[in-house]
Amino acid sequence: VSRQAEDALRALPMEAARMVLSYGPLLSSDRSGELMARIRDAQQRGPRNGSATMEVDRFCEESKVDRSAEDALKALPKDLQEKVMGEGPVMGTKNPSAVLMSRIRRAKEDDRRRSRSPSSSRSRSRRRRR
């Protein structure tokens, strides 16, 4: 990545930098551009609401999930965090971190599908066959 993108990442607050890194590897041909887009996204989301962060922290602590699963949950927008945590505890499962990551993945996919799908308010008028 370019020096400018690297410096921009280093200048972010720790939580925002974690959010940027939680998106995973840079896969596009323009890695610097992709990194800068992630940084802008993190900056637009702004600092997390304190009580919401405490709720996520408590959920993760009670669930005994690993750090990467906790970071992935914290990187989600508040509405998706609530959706994931609203599915209930993951503590009683064989691998709580894997269950949480699966819920996060599903919530992201659902959110992407909703944002991409064309409006369902299409015109209902159709020609009648005669």
Explain how this protein is built.
It is built from seven helices and no strands. By secondary structure, the chain is an all-alpha fold. α2 (14-22) packs across α3 (31-45), α2 packs across α5 and α6 (78-85) packs across α7 (96-116). The N and C termini lie far apart (63 Å).
Q: State the end-to-end CA separation.
A: 63 Å
Largest sheet: none
Average pLDDT metric? 84
> Please, what is the oligomeric state?
single chain
Q: Report the structural category.
A: mainly alpha
Order of helices and strands: HHHHHHH
Number of DSSP strand runs: 0
Please estimate the helix content: 55-70%
Strand content: under 5%
Provide the low-confidence segments as ranges.
none
Rg, Å, rounded: 19 Å
Q: Write down the overall geometry.
A: globular
Count of helical regions: 7
At a glance:
With about 130 residues, this protein is mostly helical. It has seven helices and no strands.
Question: What descriptors fit this protein?
Answer:
65% helix, mainly alpha, 130 residues, single chain, 0% strand, 7 helices
Task: Note the topology.
Layout: H1 3-11, H2 14-22, H3 31-45, H4 50-63, H5 67-75, H6 78-85, H7 96-116
